[in-house]
Structures are given as structure tokens and as C-alpha cells.
Amino acid sequence: MGVENQTSAHAVYNLKLHIVFVTKYRRKTLTPELLAYLEIAFGQVLAAWRCELLEFGGEPDHVHLLVSIHPALDISAPINNLKTASARRARRQFAEHLAHYYWKPLFWHRACFVSSVGGASLKTVKAYVERQGVRSMPAAKARQPNGCRRLDPLLSLPARGEGMRRQRLFNSIARPRRSCGARRLQGMGQGRQPAFSREKLHPAPRDRAQLRRPASTQSGCRVSGGGAQNGRLAASTDGCQA
Fold it and tell me: What is this structure's pTM?
């Protein structure tokens, strides 16, 4: 019985199945000659599925198979194929013998038993799974200050061909972070135009000179109407037209 691990393109496996087939109505139809023929038939069918029949045994109303399978296999497909192919061959080879038990083309019960088996018992495997992660882990490293914690990625970089990457990572770590307000103020100090216009807050010098010009130098005044009030306005303004 093969207990060594088997290999495929992407897996290492060791899968064994215990399969039990029962005759229809539990009729005791399986003679030694029929059992020997079924062993050969089961081996041929399993070989077509790239599986192997490791052990075979049976009694007048049921058979036991120990089968080695591969992981890329749907278990139900080969089991159904085993039942249909063996039943068809047995009815064809032992038709007279089976006619005393079944008047219809029957042989196996449609139910079956399937169980996975291995070198270790279920209790051993369960205890092994429960012990996973219980072993003492190494003590956690002391927490480093904020200034040193970010320098850890530099230690994991490879030493060859990573000069520029090391420099970029170091620059991104060593450069202090600034808020949006600090970056905006720095941009204004470097000659960037702020969001507001300086001319709107402080008028140009030519505009201020025009505002300081006295009222007597302004031309283009026009006084309309008559009366004493208009006369006084005309006398108090120079260069105005009445």
C-alpha cells in the first residue's frame, strides 16, 4: 500500500478514500468469481481517472475499495463512474447468475459510503491542529520613538541597485510635513501671487495723486439756474462756466 507523497504540476498530495458499495436490496449476489472480476473492472476504471486501486475486498452483499486519488478530482464523478461501469460489465459477464436475483437491470444500491483515510488517526490530527499557534512567540520589540520608527523600511531594501530608491525613500521620510496653511505662506514668500490682488487694497500712485488734486483745479464744472445762490456759487469758483 503506497503511503508516500505524490507530486503533480502544482501540488504534493497523499489522498486516500475508503469506498463501500452495497448490492441492490442487499441481495447476496457477489460470488468469489464475481468479486475477482469486479476487482479488475474497478482497477481499469480508476486508471482512466489517473487514480489507483490500493486494496479491494468484499462479501456477498457489499465490497470495500481503498483508492488513491489526486487533488484535481471531483469525488462524485469517479464514484458514479465506478458504479455504472462495474454494474454494466458485471451484468454483461454474469447475466445468467444475476437473473436469479434481479428481473430488471439492477446491481448496486444508489447510495454508497465514502471516507477519507490517512496514516494518522483523527484524534492525532485534531490535536495537531489545536496546537497550531500555541508555541511561544518571540518577545515584541520595544516601541521606538516617532523619529526612528519610520526609518525601518530602509533596513529591508536590497543593497544592490537600490541607490536612487533609498535616496527617494529617505527624502520622503526625513522631510518634515507641513500643513496646507504653511505651504501657502511659503509660496507667497517665494514670489507666488496670493489669491487676492494687492492693487485692490492699495490704489496705484497715479490714482492717489488724482485724489489729492484740490477742487479749485478741477475743470469742467457747470452751474445751471439763476438767483442769488447761483451768483454766490459763481463768485466762489474759478474757471467754472455759468
Answer: 0.53
